[in-house]
Structures are given as structure tokens and as C-alpha cells.
Design goal:
- It is built from 22 helices and no strands.
- By secondary structure, it is mainly α.
- Helix 5 runs antiparallel to helix 6, helix 17 runs parallel beside helix 19 and helix 19 runs parallel beside helix 21.
- The longest helix is centred in the first third of the chain and has 27 residues.
Length: 352
């Protein structure tokens, strides 16, 4: 029994030594030393303390000849990294090792294998903007519509980067561009997705609001041309309150209502007046905004709001456009009295 135990111990020591030698040879890129270690009994599939197999190491380092040798000696091409669940193929895509990736695919590596975060090799290729690797994966059956655990698709990654070539390749296999529309920032990418993809009217409205919030006038006009509803709730109100005159004009030109109130009943002209956005005031009135429409809760007009907030330029523009300086709010005060109570003497003078 003691002899058996001694022999077993010696075997484990020798085995451990072979494994260590194999890893060292891989990291040094020494093909013949790798071969010698395998011949001496080192396993092509044993994991290290980090959960990686020898094949993971060789792929990560881009050692193509060693990768080929390991696979020839029985290394499992779909072995999963214990820590993150990544296969050697995912490592190849992540590192951009095209020849190795193609070799692994040709030897049966699963192109749709995912790591613990749900990311596939195609996700990694998309993040790198690697069109060549993406093509190889797609040609071997990679799922272009696969989403990771955060709901991100490879097309979303391409859209976020503005990589039109990669997006075009992915669109040949998956035309669902709903979430990619939200990820796209460049006008050219947005145009490509709208032209070639499939999306719902609701997604168009959502994307329109994003373009509005970023003051991206070109994107707003493009989305409107593609059918985004100009009367999407919140669009004009948001733009008016933030002084985005170009966006307001684009929405109104496409049919938005210049008098559409927000959920609290406040019309866009009031928002623009309160914030002192004179250019927006001109655009709204030119598109039919009612100069003396009252805000329901306080009964104040746009002129009253501008005067009470000390918005001198807005007051001048509203007066030039014909606003009624005598209209009283629910509190019984005129715009001039509201300005006086807050100490805005210059506004008090022009409202005489």
C-alpha cells in the first residue's frame, strides 16, 4: 500500500511538472517544446488555476502553430474557461486572430457559444469592428440577432461605433434594427439602419425623442421623413424649454402642434418664455402658437411668465409680436406688476 501511495504521488508530481512545462512552452511560443511536453504526458485539456486550458493560452497569444498542434493532440475546441465561460473561439474573436478563428471554426468550434455575460464571438468581433472575422462567423452560422444578457446585439455594437461596413454585413443576416436605432449616433449610420432595417413606429418615436434631446436636427428631420410621428408627446415641449429652435422648427414643419401642452397643461410657448428663449418664441408663433394663451393652474400668459422671470429679450420679442401686456393672471397681477415685484426694473419700464 505504501508503495502504491508513493507511486501515485510521484505520478502527480510528474504530471504537474509536465503541465507547468507545457504552459511555459506555450507562453514562450516554443512549438517543439510544446510537442515534447505533450509527448511526455502533459494533458492538452488540463485547466490552470485561472480556469484556462492550454488551448486558451495559445489562442490568446496568437500562437497559430501551437493551436494546430494542441487540436491535433486532442484539445477540445469548445472547452470553457472556468472563470468566465469563454471558449477559445471567443478568445480568438476578442484578440482579432483571424487565421486561428477560422481554423477553430473549421474544426468544429461552436460559433454561437457564449460566455457568462451572454456575449458571443460575433459580439466580440463587432466590438472590435472586425469585418473579416464577422464574415467568417456569419458564413458558418453565427446568429446575428443573438443578444447578450444586457440585451445588446452585434448590430447594436456596430451602430454605436458608426461602423457602416460592419453594420451592412450584419444587416444581411438580421434586419431587426429597433435597438440599433437607439445606439446609432451618426447620421449616416442612422440613415443606413432606417433604409435597410425593420423597426416599429413606436421605436421611431422613441428614437425621435432621443434625437430631440441631443439637439440633432439632421437626425430629427431624417426620422420625420421616415415616418416618425411629429406629434410624439414631449418632443416640442422638451425642445422649447431648452431653446432648441432648429429642432422645434423641424417638428413644427412636419406637423407638430405648436400649442400642444405638456401633461401639466403648459404650452410650449410658455416653456420658451419662462426660459427666455427668444428664437424659439419666434418659431412657435410663426407656426401658430397662441400669444396670449393662459397656463391653466396660474392663468399666466407667456408674457407674464417671461416678465416674472426677468427674461428681457423674451419680453421684447413677445411685445413685438403683439402680446397683450394688460392680461392678468389668476392672482390679479399684470406682467408689469409681476416684474416689479421681482425687481426687474428694465422690464417694468418697457411694459409701461
Amino acid at each position: 500500500m505504501k508503495l502504491c501511495g508513493l507511486l501515485a504521488g510521484l505520478f502527480l508530481v510528474a504530471h504537474s511538472a509536465f503541465a507547468a512545462t507545457l504552459r511555459e512552452a506555450i507562453r514562450a511560443g516554443e512549438l517543439e517544446q510544446v510537442r515534447a511536453s505533450l509527448d511526455a504526458g502533459a494533458s492538452a485539456n488540463e485547466t490552470d488555476d485561472l480556469g484556462a486550458t492550454p488551448l486558451h493560452d495559445a489562442v490568446w497569444l496568437g500562437e497559430e502553430a501551437i493551436v494546430r498542434l494542441l487540436v491535433d493532440r486532442g484539445a477540445r475546441v469548445d472547452s470553457e474557461h472556468t472563470e468566465a465561460g469563454s471558449t477559445p473561439l471567443l478568445f480568438a474573436a476578442l484578440r482579432g486572430h483571424t487565421a486561428i478563428l477560422e481554423f477553430l471554426v473549421e474544426h468544429g468550434a461552436g460559433v454561437n457559444a457564449a460566455n457568462s455575460a451572454g456575449g458571443t464571438s460575433l459580439h466580440f468581433a463587432a466590438r472590435r469592428g472586425d469585418v473579416a472575422i464577422a464574415r467568417i462567423l456569419l458564413e458558418h452560422g453565427a446568429d446575428a440577432g443573438r443578444r447578450d444578457r444586457e440585451g445588446v446585439s452585434p448590430l447594436d455594437e456596430a451602430a454605436r461605433q458608426g461602423n457602416a461596413e460592419l453594420a451592412g454585413v450584419l444587416l444581411e443576416h438580421d434586419r431587426d434594427t429597433g435597438s440599433a436605432l437607439m445606439a446609432a449616433d451618426s447620421l449616416s449610420m442612422l440613415s443606413l439602419l432606417l433604409e435597410q432595417g425593420r423597426y416599429s413606429p413606436e421605436k421611431l418615436g422613441e428614437r425621435l425623442l432621443r434625437a430631440v434631446s441631443k439637439n440633432h436636427v439632421g437626425a430629427v428631420r431624417l426620422l420625420l421623413q421616415r415616418g416618425a410621428p411629429a406629434r410624439t408627446p414631449g418632443g416640442v415641449q422638451f425642445a422649447a424649454a431648452r431653446g432648441l429652435a432648429g429642432v422645434v422648427a423641424a417638428l413644427l414643419d412636419a406637423g407638430a402642434d405648436a400649442n400642444q401642452p405638456d401633461p401639466a397643461g403648459v404650452p410650449p410657448l410658455h416653456e420658451a418664455a419662462l426660459q427666455g428663449h427668444a428664437d424659439v418664441i419666434r418659431v412657435l408663433v410663426a407656426h401658430g402658437a397662441k400669444l396670449d394663451q393662459t397656463e391653466p393652474e396660474t392663468g399666466s400668459t407667456p408674457l407674464y411668465g417671461a416678465a416674472s422671470m426677468g427674461r428681457l429679450e423674451a419680453v421684447r420679442v413677445l411685445l413685438d409680436l403683439g402680446a397683450d401686456r394688460t392680461r392678468r393672471s389668476n392672482s390679479g397681477r399684470t406682467p408689469r406688476e409681476a416684474a416689479a415685484s421681482s425687481g426687474f426694473s428694465e422690464i417694468v419700464e418697457i411694459l409701461r
